Amino acid sequence: MDKTRIKVQAFLSKVPLFANLRPDELDRIALGTSKVKVERGELVFQRGEPCVGFHIVLYGQVKLSFTSAAGAEKVIELIGPGHSFGEALMFMNKPYIVTAQAMEDTMLLHVSKPVIYREIHGDPDFACAMLAGLSQRMHSLMSDMESYSLRSGTQRVVGYLVKDCEEDASSELTLPAAKAVLASRLNLTPEHFSRIMADLSARQLIAFKGRHIVIPDVQKLKSCAG
């Protein structure tokens, strides 16, 4: 077995969807994968194209979005290393309903539809793992809908900033994308997003320079959003 295949297996074993598979099962999945290098700004696929598998991000970042007839973009999700996208449509036998674009130079692992179907038919546990992964994605989308419908702009921004923070007194993070992209992801205009960030900074709840954010007191920031 070549070194590339071994590297793919090692990566797959760390992806939640495949974490509990045996080495021989990982080997079979690896046989149905291919690496896809995408440069910053390049499209992975466009809305309406056929879905013949799904992708996992090896490194880099991918933006999933809609574009209206008027040209306005709505960012649905930002996908980072170790995370996958496209599984649901693969099972539905429908074309892509979003456009995927690399936000930086990105390496993807494409997993073909036939190899996944073969494993599902031969292993009920694998089928259950796929269902669990899809259910988790659905739960995340429902949480987003709740946020857009019931939470204020400040609550959305604060929730995004603290979602991966430890319960420590302070925290630092780097925003994964430009503010305009994050604003769209949170269903805000870029201007509204900037005003909220400026207000939080004026209240000394955050300090930021470019994409780098410092949160002096995580609990205090959380409490300001109710």
Helices, strands, pairings?
Elements (H helix, E strand, L loop, with lengths): L2 H10 L10 H9 L1 E6 L4 E3 L7 E7 L2 E6 L5 E7 L4 E2 L1 H6 L6 E4 L3 E7 H10 L1 H27 L2 H10 L8 E4 L4 H7 L4 H13 L4 E3 L2 E4 L2 H7 L2
Antiparallel strand pairs: 1-8, 2-7, 3-6, 3-8, 4-5, 4-7, 9-11, 10-11
Helix pairs in contact: 1-2, 4-5, 6-9, 7-8
Notes on the protein architecture:
- With 226 residues, the protein is of the alpha+beta class.
- It has two domains: 3-149, Jelly Rolls, CATH 2.60.120; 151-224, Arc Repressor Mutant, subunit A.
- The protein has nine helices and eleven strands.
- The strands form three sheets. The protein has a four-stranded antiparallel beta sheet.
- It is globular.
- It starts with a helix and ends with a helix.
- Mean pLDDT is 88; it is low at 1-6.
